[in-house]
UniProtKB/TrEMBL annotation:
Pfam families: Radical_SAM, TRAM_2, UPF0004. This is Ribosomal protein uS12 methylthiotransferase RimO. Residues 6-116 form the MTTase N-terminal domain. GO terms for molecular function: protein methylthiotransferase activity. It is found in: Cytoplasm. Catalyzes the methylthiolation of an aspartic acid residue of ribosomal protein uS12. [4Fe-4S] cluster 1 binds at residues 15, 51, 80.
Amino acid sequence: MSHVAPKVGFISLGCPKAASDSEQILTRLRAEGYEISGTYDGADLVVVNTCGFIDAAVQESLDAIGEALTENGKVIVTGCLGAKGDVIRDNHPSVLAVTGPHATDEVMGHVHNHLPKPHDPFVDLVPDIGVRLTPKHYAYLKISEGCNHRCTFCIIPSMRGDLDSRPIQNVLAEAENLAKAGVKELLIISQDTSAYGVDVKYKLGFHNGRPVKTRMTELCEELGKHGIWVRLHYVYPYPHVDEVIPLMRDGKILPYLDIPFQHASQKILKLMKRPANSDNVLGRIKKWREICPQLVIRSTFIVGFPGETEDDFEELLNFIREAQLDRVGCFTYSPVEGAAANELPDPVPDEVKEERKERFMAVQAEISAARLAARIGQRLQVLVDEIDEEGTAVCRSYADAPEIDGLVFVEDAAGLVVGDFVEVEIVDASEHDLWGERV
């Protein structure tokens, strides 16, 4: 009788950092000979990797756990919601086990308890780069965990702890493996990319026999040597961010910065306890664009934070008109359980929050549309993400991060495959996306 490998169903919710945790757990499961399934069907056990950041995500995670229990019955929970202690047990007392985020060893221990590992000395299924949830042509590279800031709207430090930078040699070795495996784009993620190495005092590591500082600038210089796209996420505008702009100008890393500014009013930024809260953000943006004219900036903002007056909000609108950011997300303040900001006086009524968000997005929509329209006639290198049924290549340019920014559509996809780079001339633009013709 042939041996049937035990099968683990895997559900991953939440942000790219959670996906990165999932990939580590999946790699271990595969290495030990477990089969992986994206469904509950026929799985001996289900692992749910949860998100606990905002209330809607908590509810989504609880619903997913409930569904897994109903459909399968044997469920192990990991991820950010697991750090919130009793929430899961109170709602779903029958789960087998609960762990917090980045707890690969614990998760494996629970899997072994409930589903003993298969013994097969000949099974070595895992490629060097591990098992990845993202498409083969791009990969998330997590450089640190946790955060040293205590922004009042955020509970990440209580879930994921203080900043814990990965050793630079590990990060660079992983990047090298990914590049060798044919990955075309690395997305650098953390809770605070600019702070990389602060916790270890920027200590020297060794990569291929060379000393390299555990620091964002040095990291970018090294990553830029693979000749593939390198995209920075979650960058706070500390002074040393200025050092990576020339690397962008010289084509070492993508001229793309994801900077969560959150607000423009100094009063609100202080209430938020935002780090690197400099008055002169507009001046710095102008300087960055002088050094690297093709720089694209994406950001997120919160409206309706406790204490935000109409004047504060007007200041924010003036800021985005001046800053001319390329891509912007806007959230209304959501009182997350456990966030310090919930105790602040003068909460903003829900209808005012919503109305401000609409006004904010209307101003930004015009800016984004104009910046995209200005690309008509430009030539851009794009990366093919998929070929749809109509034979259109769905692509991204350097200005577009996967799943959060816009797309570039190329109607003639003949001969193109996913993961190809192709040069196009931009012929049309909408509020979010571009259309290109192959050159």
